[in-house]
Amino acid sequence: MIAFVALLAGLVFGLGLILSGMGNPAKVLNFLDVFGTWDPSLALVMAGAIAVAIFAFTWAKRRKTSLLGEPMQLPTATALDGKLLTGAALFGIGWGLAGFCPGPALMNLSTGHGEVWLFVAAMLVGMLAQHAWAKRGAS
């Protein structure tokens, strides 16, 4: 049942990316180009996502388990440290340069475009490098 719900959630997320245009790198880049061909429509998508998340997280904080009985694992960190700010900056730079973030990039793998595959490969290399760096620092 958990795997089915995860699959269903992934499908709904992918459909939302398609309908909102978040999977189209040109639309994303136009949203980021505030002094050029700015497309503000993704701001509405983000505002809608934030509105839903506020209610969902408020509800989730009151619960010990999920609807499927799994323990709630909500983030507890509140500090704005160097790791968070560096990660956010790298995410933003990658998003601004490529027009992709991880979810839409994985969704766009099915298009077969080389630049999408290159982005995902670079993303995976970055994730492995960060994991190795973090592991090195922990020892």
TrEMBL record:
Keyword field: Membrane, Transmembrane, Transmembrane helix
Protein name listed in UniProt: Membrane protein
Membrane-traversing stretches: 41-60, 80-100, 116-134
Source organism of this protein record: Comamonas aquatica DA1877
Keyword Transmembrane attached: yes
InterPro entries named in the record: DUF6691
